[in-house]
Amino acid sequence: MPFYQKLGEIPSKRHTIFKSGKDEFYYEQLFGTEGFHGMSSLLYHTHRPTQIKSVRKAVSVQPIAAVDKHITPRMLKGFQVNPENDYLESRKVMMFNNDLHISVAAPLKGNEDYFYKNADADEVIFIHEGTGKLRTLLGNISFGPGDYLVVPRGIIYQIRFDTEKNRLFIVDSFSPVVTPKRYRNEFGQLLEHSPFCERDIKTPEELETHDEKGEFTIKIKKQGMLHSVVYGSHPFDVVGWDGYNYPYAFSIHDFEPITGRVHQPPPVHQTFEAHNFVICSFCPRLYDYHPQAVPAPYNHSNIDSDEVLYYVDGDFMSRKHVEKGFMSLHPGGIPHGPHPGTMEKSIGQKETKELAVMVDTFKPLKLTAEAMSIDDGNYVTSWV
């Protein structure tokens, strides 16, 4: 995120001697992306963060395409994905390309038995159902339904759920996830026309500092493999940090919709962007207020992008028979729009209570066998 944060104890000057009250050194670590050009933070550890004791056998987590090239609109029933005890095992990739993976998950519990680091991708974890705490080496963030948890690549974390009923929609991005450039000025500040501001963003707090040695397993995702690396000190041993690279949460309920006299195009709902895709939030809002307005979205051909819409809550005026956790896929090049009768029904309506997350990709998506197993099979002909 483009604003400065700090937490815990840090020295007054970078790259200088910093000791504890026991006259023991703290160990500085620059934590950044894109070499020395991207967002970075400076961390101060109780122990050296480099103490690898062993590297265990790795397993492949690279998704495999069941359907590669296709033009078929689909509706996936996301809540049909079976719950799993383990957080990582619960994450089922539905669609993917070289820019991102799109997954759903129903974890019964978190990864409190080990630590996790995604060294390949930034993660955007949308909390559909469940409450808990994201614990990281930079501090903790409490979360609940509607929160986006944005976890930059390389962040070591554990996720703890308060209940067993949890549903997640997850995007792994192989480029940095940022707020839309048109929302920010040249200094990085979110502008007045942005549908959210810095006050809406929850940054880490409750910094945990564990001065512990032993054996601590970190599962690291790198190049499509999941590695288990055992370190000699607790990963959460940071006494302080400052900078611009850290996890944060943003609630979809804090997104302020942009409305107009006539129907507004999907980019007004944009929340995040990365290389070759965007993430949008469709939130409860007033309908268009021109006296002849048609509130339902017009038919459109997304020639250059695949559109994925994950349904969270509410009654979607442009779709018939949509339930929580449903996920539609409209491939690029194929026109789509409101289901028969829904355009006419929308005229004269004053507001919508719909809630959804949309991902538009500018490269085609491939579907996995997990996705095909929850495809309703009838969506393609539902406009007839």
Describe the structure concisely.
The chain is mainly beta and 384 residues long. The chain has 3 helices and 31 strands. It has 2 domains: 51-61 and 83-239 and 246-251, Sandwich (Jelly Rolls), CATH 2.60.120; 253-381, Jelly Rolls.
Give a written overview of the molecule.
The chain has 384 residues and is mainly beta. The protein has two domains: 51-61 and 83-239 and 246-251, Jelly Rolls, CATH 2.60.120.10; 253-381, Jelly Rolls. It is built from three helices and 31 strands. The protein has helices at 87-90, 342-346, 369-373, and strands spanning 5-8, 27-32, 40-45, 52-55, 59-60, 65-67, 74-77, 92-96, 100-105, 115-118, 122-129, 132-136, 139-143, 147-151, 156-161, 167-173, 201-202, 213-222, 225-233, 238-243, 248-251, 270-274, 277-282, 285-286, 300-301, 306-313, 326-330, 335-336, 351-352, 355-361, 366-368. A nine-stranded antiparallel beta sheet has the order 6-31-8-9-16-11-14-21-17. Strands 4, 5, 10, 12, 13, 15, 18 and 19 form an eight-stranded mixed beta sheet that branches. A six-stranded antiparallel beta sheet has the order 7-27-26-30-23-22, with no helix packed on it. The radius of gyration is 22 Å and the shape is globular. The mean pLDDT is 94.
